[in-house]
Amino acid sequence: MSLIESMFSGMRMLASDVSGSAGAYDDFWYEPIGGRNSAAGIRVSPETSKKLGVVIACASSRGKTIAMLPFKVRRDLRGGGSKVIANHPVWRLIAKRPNSFQTPYDFRLMLNAHVDLRGNGYAEKVGNVQGYPEQLLPMHPDRVRVDVIPKTGRLIYIYNDPLLNKERRLVQEEVFHLRDWSDNGYTGQSRITMGLDPFGVALARQDYMSRWFKNDARTGIVFAGGDFKDDEAKEKWVEKMRAGGTGANRGRPMWTPKGMTVSQMGVTPVDSQLIEGKKVSDQEICSIMGEYPHVIGIDAGKAATYASVEQFNIMRAQNVVHPMVIMWEQAVQRDLLLDDAEYSHLSMAALMRGDNATRFAGYATAIEHGWLSPDDVRELEDLNPIADGAGKVYWRLAALLPLKQIEAPAKPEPAAGDESDDDDAPEDGAGGDSDPKAMNPTKRAQFEMLALSQAERCVRRETAEVRKMIDRRAAGSEVAEFYTKHAAWIAEIFHLNAKISLEVRSACDDRGQQLAMHLADEDDEFLAAAQVWVEQIAATEPRKLAKLAVEGI
Known about the structure:
Elements: H1 3-18, E1 36-37, E2 43-44, H2 46-49, H3 53-68, E3 71-76, E4 82-84, H4 89-96, H5 104-118, E5 120-126, E6 135-139, E7 144-148, E8 155-161, E9 166-171, E10 175-179, H6 191-194, H7 196-214, E11 221-225, H8 231-245, E12 260-264, H9 274-289, H10 309-335, E13 342-346, H11 356-368, H12 374-380, H13 403-407, H14 441-471, H15 476-494, H16 498-520, H17 526-551
Antiparallel strand pairs: 1-2, 3-4, 3-13, 5-6, 5-10, 7-8, 8-9, 11-12
C-alpha cells in the first residue's frame, strides 16, 4: 500500500470511529443499498435477515419478554429503602400510554426489536409537562443518523421524517435512545452486521433449499446426446423443460429428442449435510442474537431436558433478560427521569416464580424469618390484603410471634387461685386451661407455633430418609417398615393420645403408598416427580403435624 493510500485509509477509519455516521470516504457509500455482501455471496441486512425463522423467533422472544415485565418508578428514602411513586409521568409513558397509537407492549416490543436487529432504538420526546415528555414517538433507525459536536461531545440526531418528507435535527435532550454493544460510545452496532457471514450462510442455504423444493425436491438432471438442428433449438428445448417441469408444472411427463439419455445426480441435500448444517447454523445465530435455542423451539440435543428446563429458564433470566432490563432501566434514568433520587424498575419476579410447591415453600420461609408479611405475599400473588390489617404483621421463626411482642414480651397475668394451697395442682404449673379445647384461638395458635420446631424436626427426618430410599429405589416393604416406625416415633415425641396417634399413623401410611407408587414408576422422569413430591411434604407437613400435636396433648 502506498503512502497516499495509507493516509486516506487512516482518514476513513478516523471519520468512522469519531462520528456515529459513516465518513465521506467510508466504504459504506460505495456498497450495495440495503446491506452488505457476505462471503457466501448473499446480501445481508436487517430486512433480509428476517427471512430466517430463527431471527424472527429470537427477536420476538426477547422483545416480548421485555414488553410484558411490570414497570415502576421508585424513589430512594432518606432513612433507607424506597417507595413506588404512583402516577409518575414516566411511569405513564412506559407502562400506560407511550403515545396516541401504541400500547406499552407495542412500544417496548418495537424498540427492543430495533436494538436486536439494528443496534439502536430511538424515540422522539414530544410535548412538555413539568419537564417530562407527553409522548414517545418511535423513529426507525434506518432514518436516523447520529453526529457528534466536536467541541462539546454532545449528540445531534438527524432524522429523515417520513411524515414531513424532510430532515429534522434533534438535540440529545429530545431523544430517548437505546443502544446495543457500541465501539464509539454513541451508536450501537447491529448484530446482523457483526455476524455477517453466519447470516449469509444461513440465507444461502435457505435459498438453495427453497429452489430445491421449487424444482420438485429433486437434484440436478443431466441430459446427454440428442439431435438438435442448432444451438438455438437446444436452448429453446432447455427453457421449455425448465418451464414444464418445475413449480406448478412439476411431475408432468417430459419429452426428449431422439438419441438423448437422461440421468439424475446422486447427491441429495441430506447427503451433503444441509439439514444438519441448518441446525448448527440456527444455534450459532441464537448465540449471536443472545437467546437460548430451546426457548424458540430448536432442539439443542440432551443439553435441555425436562428435568433441567427450570435451571435453563433461570439461566435465561440471568444471562439474557437481565442485561436487557438494565439497558432499559439505565436509558430511562438518563433520558427521561429528572431527579437523581428516582429510578426505574422492571420487575423480573414473574420470571423467577417457579412451580407452585417451590414458590409457596419460599413464601413460607420468608414469612417465618420476618422479611415478608402475609400481605406482601398476597400482593405478589395478585390477592387483596387480609381484612383489618391483620396481614401486615411481620413474624419471626422462634415462636412466630409479632416482632414487637418478642422485643418486649407481655408479663403474664396471675391466674385466679394462684394463692390457693391446692395440692392437686400440677408441679409444672400447667393449669386447667392448658387443655387445647379450653384454649382461646390466640393461645391455641401460640401452642401450635411452639410445637412447630419439633414438627419441623420430624419432617426433616422423614424427608432425609425418603430421599435416600428414592436414590436406591427401595422396595415397598422397606417403605412400609420405615413409615410404621416413623409414626410410632412421632407419637412418642409429642406424647399423643390414641386418637391422634391413629390419625398420624393413617397419614404416614398414605405417604408410604404414594412413595411406593413413585418408586414403582418405570418412567425416566420419575426422579423429578418424586423430588417435587418430597418438596411438597417439606413445605406443608410441619404445620399440619404441629396442629395435630396440640390437639393430641
